[in-house]
Sequence to fold (1131 residues):
Amino acid sequence: MPKCTINGKEIEVKAGATIMEAMYQMDEAIAHYCYHPGLSVAGVCRLCIVDIEGNPRPQIACNTAVTDGMKISNKSDKIREGVKWVLDFHLINHPLDCPICDQAGECGLQEQYMEFGKYDPEMAERKVKKHKVVDLGPTVVLDSERCILCSRCVRFTDEVSKTHELGIFNRGDRSEIGTAEGKELNNKYSLNTVDICPVGALTSKDFRFRQRVWYLKDSDTICNGCSTGCSVKVYFNKEGLFRVRPVVNPEVNGHWMCDEGRDIYKFVNRDIRLLKAKKKTNSGEWTELTAGAAAKEASGIAKSAGADVALVLTGQYTNEEYEKIVETFVKDFKSKKIYHWINNKEHLNDFDGLLIRGDKNPNTKGLIGVLESHSLTSPFSNLEADLKKGTVKTLVVAAPENFAVYLDLKEKLSLFTKAQNLIWLSSVKNSDLDDMNGNIWQIPMKSYIEKSGTFTNHAGLEQKFHKVTTVVSESLTLGEAAELLAGKNISVAVTPTRETFVEADRRADLVRLEHRKKNEFVYKRGSL
Amino acid sequence: METKLLTEFYHLDEFRGLSGYKAKGGYAILAKALKMQPQQIIDEVKASGLRGRGGAGFPTGSKWGFLPKNNEPRYLLCNADEGEPGTFKDRLMMERAPHQLIEGMIISSYAISSKKSYIYIRGEYDFPYECLMQALEEAYKAGYLGKNILGSGFDHDMDVYRGAGAYICGEETGMISSLEGFKGQPKLKPPFPAVQGYLRKPTIVNNVETLAAVIPILRDGAQAYRKFGTEKSAGTKLFSLSGNVVKAGNYEVPLAYPLMDLINKEGGGLKPGRKLKAVIPGGSSAPVLTAEECTKATLDYECLAQMGSMLGSGAVIVIDDSQCMVDLLGVLMHFYHHESCGQCTPCREGTGWLNKITHSILEGRGRLQDIDLLLRVADNMKGRTICALSDAAALPVISFVSKFREEFEFFVREGRSKVKGTTYAEMHH
Amino acid sequence: MSVVQNTSEKSKWYLPGILTGMMITMQHLVKNLVNKKQMTTLNYPEEKYEYSPRFKGNHVLTVKKDGSLRCTACMLCATACPAECIKIVASEHKDPSVEKFPIHYEIDILRCVFCGYCEEACPVDAVRMGPEWQTPGVTGANFIYDINHLAYRPNLKGGILSHVDDEERIKSGI
Fold:
């Protein structure tokens, strides 16, 4: 394990590690664009030059292996001058697009300019003009003029998604990123190229122009799109959630996430959520009540049903919630009729080789674990039979939050409403219930970003995540709903609407710049 | 005094064909070499002090010694791309004596234990390509290529691969990328081609002349080869003389030959009434020498390096006092801007910037600070890139602007050439 | 600092001080009666004060030569505003040379403190503080100014041209 000294600090690295990997290990600031820890080394941006003792020429850090006893520094004036000039070369043909570019605020060029630049540009000639607003595919838009040709996106499509859609065409400063004739950038991981692009050349059609990044706060959580459970970061502000990005997690997802997971923020914003509890009797109108009141009424119904009350669970809630609700049903209702609603048996074990799995519920394993620990193994077909016979009086359903992956939702709804009383615990609105008969209570639930909990992914790895923010303050967790249904009195704190989308755990007097520092290009924020 | 180690029989048309070549002693050295041990040949080449004739001047014997001592298949690549402006010596050899190249390559392949070699010839060389293909056919038929060459048990295959018009494919890793079927973009070094080159296997890339020079070395011995030239620059070299001389052409002279002799004796001197202004001694990437420096220059690696220039590929471009240096720099900058592969930023953007500034000055829009800007941009392009094209573009700028600054200042102030008196548009109507 | 004490007998009398004061007032009265033009008071609304061209009044969104909004929805003005009164919603423009433009641009004029930071922050001279300052709202008045009001209200006579011209910039090759 070779030891080296970087900027005066000694560090031990793995054999064969490059200086850049050592810098990442030490969290030391070094300017770079084309190096990415999840991709191969390209060495084309020439920004990561360092001084090695004994070598008169500065070397690039991303391709130089660390030898024992190497002394490396990148703080001298000569190196700073060199980086400034290479940055200047990047900027001489770069268009003046900051006002209309999405990457403003998290742009590699802006960050390095504030660190090494702040000079007057001397390029007085005409800049090279290339294509702007090029439609690369269904998800990504390219602006060739902004591209600094770091080739990260090309390496991504070659090495990670292995779809080889992108390439660099033409030669010299006329080079442009593009797809071959007739092809487009259309794979399930295409939005990762937008993440890794250091400048605003590749932008996501979904997020384009929706918000400026300095208005967004971010927080870490777990994706609930499928059973892989990638670590993600959601970006939000008072107007809602805007986008989702992957977080490095070597055990689960590496550096990437799939495009399907990027849509999970859409099931959380207020426009799609069930805001207040509703109830209706047979083909009547909906009346709104508070969640607590609805639950209390429903609990009366449920208690009268006694051991005949049935519970349907989907694999989209946390382990803690499952424990609570199963316990409540077993102890307080003395009911053993707890069923697992599986939505796609045929695709359950699909895996595309990279990240996407066929089981679109994040916590199937957790649910199965909890059910087995209470020895509740009755198959769903039993419930279906009972419903068809008409012997189920009260049915409590923990509905899926990510309802788009439940393709059989409508037919299951018509099945569920065969019960006399249906208590529908859901975080999203459901207009299909308007036409259904029977007594229906809808009680709003918290979505995954409003609660802390644990998901167990396909491999049995338990991942804890914390509450990000409050979206619908009247919503309940499954555990709270269970207790209310059982007739217990608990207090449900309700925050006023203007306090929603405020980050959880924030000291009122603390100005939060921390999240800006987690951008990979900024290690230490200087005077900004 | 011309010494014709290689070019002795180039004037004979029949030397191109196999029978004419064999009549003058061709393929006899191959027979001799196949009886030696490969390591002996490498030692002989090392002892002769042969340096790469393509431009870099790296000692060939040492390069061959870098190969790993294992059983991996090796490749020999002959660099016949000849992209350096001003160079046309390899073309002469391929047109007039393709068998010399083939024989040299078979001997070198035997020395480095390579079973397959490629000649990477630039796409523009139609006629040399035909000559090479014809010669290859003849060689295969005669049993000099293929299985069990001359009964020695050594198998070897040779192929010719045509380029498609990129100067950057003359760079060794650029050539390897192009041969592998990718874009001809240079690769990062380390790993070096001798360890991981073509198809990730040990590869040696040598120039046409270097490989052919193995023949006289083995024929007469390393010490005889060392009789020509100096201690550090041994042997003879072909120089492509061009520019404002009476007899432009290729001349083989021993190294350390005085530059003025090459121009005046072999080249027939300048046109009547003209005076020498500058000479570019080693292809357009070599810094230019003023007339005064030329009088002291001898054509070897050390002397020219000491003067701040380089021997390079041996393309001697003679410039007399009727040429405008600013115009000449414009031509060179256009070339480098066009040929930059675009991988790394300083070269990609820098060559474009230098080209634009030079043409601004030429079109009369130059400002006085542009001249210093040229120097600063060129200074900061050097040494920061994957391959040497960036240095090759920067060195002429620095040498032209520092040594002929009055011409640039005149152009900026007056918008026309000091030497020719006309504007750029008039010069190139 | 030393205090000059006037301890003469005369100063202990009240009347001279009062009379001097009244004399000054009478002088001003007579001066104003005689020389009406040199009075500092303005007879508003017949006479109005001439403010400098840099006066920070109601905002104006400038337009380009073809009449479309100059603003590129970069949101620098909204970020700089200390009162957080500017709300912008951006959108994609069909013309790739324009690319981004605001579909909503609202200034809550009651929150605005007329500091001028938005005008300073704008990189393309899209928002300016104009000379209008007296804009009371009568019944049903809307104090949230939208694009129609900010760029195209009647007394702007079709829109104020911006100084930053994209055509020139594109022609010069930047």
